[in-house]
Amino acid sequence: MPFTLPNLPYAFNALEPHIDARTMEIHHGKHHNAYVTNLNNAVAGKPEENLSIEEICKNISKYPAAVRNNGGGHYNHSLFWAVIGPNAGGAPTGSLADAINDAFGNFDEFKTKFAAAAAGRFGSGWAWLIVGADGKLAITSSPNQDNPLMDVAEVQGTPILGLDVWEHAYYLNYQNRRPDYVTAFWNVVNWVEVAKRFDAAK
Ligand code: MN3
Asked: pLDDT tens digit string along 58-90?
């Protein structure tokens, strides 16, 4: 099987009270796991089983819907687990902080705009902070399991921070209160990891 479920690099309860253990357990072990299984089934015996998930996303228009949905699901969740974590939150520093100030005015303005993208994504999808082809930061959102790496994305770039706004990501703890979940998200963002991805994407 070419694609595997990455281990969660912290305990299910490590993000409490911001994201509850039961949500993390189901989200990682059931939802992400299903995307990996369905992606492996969709690429079995085809040339794309030898490609990286990033390469598949970049050429997603060539592949059937099962690869788009489950490949996106695998890429998106793998990024999500990495950019959140315990002992996190606060604010970015260094060149990432400078780039956020350049692009959005200041960190609070950035958070307001990102939260608006997350709240405004109708139905299921993701909010993103991306590095565009021009090297500049931008905020965007995508439906379903699409992402900004995909050649079909409205706004394309390299994602360095993503927020899952599917109901399965927050419903057990927050019910219909997506804005409360988005507010809590800032307490678990691993800015060191986001900065690493920013430096790599530039
Ligand atoms: Mn999810």
From this structure: 999 999 999 999 999 999 999 999 999 999 999
